[in-house]
Design brief:
The chain is of the alpha+beta class. The protein has helices at 51-58, 85-95, and strands at residues 2-7, 17-21, 24-27, 32-40, 61-66, 76-83, 100-106, 112-118. A hairpin with a 5-residue loop joins strand 7 (100-106) and strand 8.
Length: 119
């Protein structure tokens, strides 16, 4: 994943959402925090990885895919992420403007493991 940037969704202008921080909103009905990102998948990536590893690392979940039909037409994908405020803050600080990818690394036991890299 690359070209990761924060986006503001139109739905955040509804009364259900209150702005907490730039690009972070609280859904007052569900008492959850959300943010939305747009990113470009690299040639060897699909819509699951490394996204799934990011969700695990920051304890978040995808609460909405924005226009998922467009994914088949381009390598760009937009999604809304939800979770605790602290996790969302860490997530945004860690990934916006960065490149995120998985690499294979060999462990001391000789096994191959997948490592999430953010640079």
């Amino acid at each position: 994943m690359k070209n990761i940037r924060s986006i503001t969704l139109e739905k955040y202008s509804h009364l259900v959402y209150e702005s907490v921080d730039p690009y972070i909103y609280r859904n007052t009905e569900e008492n959850t925090y959300v943010t939305a990102l747009s990113f470009e998948l690299e040639d060897n990536e699909d819509s699951q990885y490394p996204l799934e590893d990011l969700l695990d690392r920051f304890n978040l979940y995808v609460s909405d895919f924005i226009d998922p039909k467009a994914f088949g037409e381009s390598n760009y994908l937009s999604a809304e992420f939800a979770g605790d405020l602290e996790n969302i803050l860490d997530f945004l600080k860690s990934v916006v403007g960065k490149r995120v990818y998985n690499t294979d690394v060999e462990g001391e036991d000789g096994q191959t493991y997948v490592k999430l890299s953010i640079e």
